[in-house]
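Possible regression after last week's pipeline update?

I re-ran a chain I had predicted before the update to compare outputs. Posting the input and the new output here so someone can diff against the archived version. Not blocking, just want to make sure nothing changed silently.
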Amino acid sequence: MRPYSKTQIILHWAVALLVVAQFVFHESIAAAWDGFLEGKPGGFDPLVFSHVVGGGLILALVVWRMVMRRRQGAVAPVAGTSPFMARVTHWGHLALYGVLVLAAFSGMAAWFGGVHQAAEVHELLKIVILVLVGGHFAAALFHQFYLKDKLLQRMSLHK
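New output (post-update):
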């Protein structure tokens, strides 16, 4: 079975950290957007800038990861995974990649284009991301502590 490459592992954790940061520092961008809607002039805010740059980085890294997956193929499921669960895993990963890309584009359309509907979509996608990331995290913990199949070691640089 081909393991994840070092690049894939680094991309995974970089995106994970950036997504967490987007949620943790969300209030500044939300306040800036509300100010924009109210016609208030906005000054430079490093947290707003960080949210915008973070979204762009997530987009770039996810696209990079998707290109790698397309060229190299997906890593095989853990031994003993049923065909049904392998499909669920496959579609779960694709959904997470897709929603992260859509969130980045909707955020750009809202922020740079002033498209109010895109901001609403961005807010809805935030909930979808939380659900997908929560499911991803729960599945990883299930594998680690219940199935004890060493799945988490596949996404570690220290093997």
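Follow-up from reviewer: compared with the archived run. The radius of gyration is 18 Å. Marking as no regression found.
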